[in-house]
From TrEMBL:
This is Sensory transduction regulator. The lineage of its organism: Bacteria, Bacillati, Bacillota, Negativicutes, Veillonellales. InterPro entries: Put_sensory_transdc_reg_YbjN. It comes from the Bacteria.
Amino acid sequence: MNKKAENFKKFLDERTITDFSLDVPEEDQLHTAIFRSNITVNGTNIPTIFILDDSIYGMIRTFIAPKAQNEKNMETLFQLVNEYNMTYKSFKYFIDNDGSLLLDTCVILPNDDVDGDIIYALYRTISQHLEETYKDIMKVIWA
């Protein structure tokens, strides 16, 4: 496991935070560690991961909706995602190759320190944003 992940795990352990499970893929050149969790929005558990590796970047990835994009909603979903991407600086939406809607929040971590309080603040920001937008997102997906 990389130093950043060790430091974040120490933060979680010291505060007895059990919201995360840890996955460390074997034989990974960047020594990636994945902290899995969920954000609850309007009663729906939305999976998230916090990825830490040897690069200067950390990533909070939120899995908004699997197979969200289809022929019927493609244009409207792209418009909504683009609007959110132009509006919010701290994170970016995208649609993966399977048509799933994801939200990434990039964190710059130039050394081995991971400020757990800042990471939690980012999770709260994502949660607050989704509390405001999730219903609109799902209306577009289900249309």
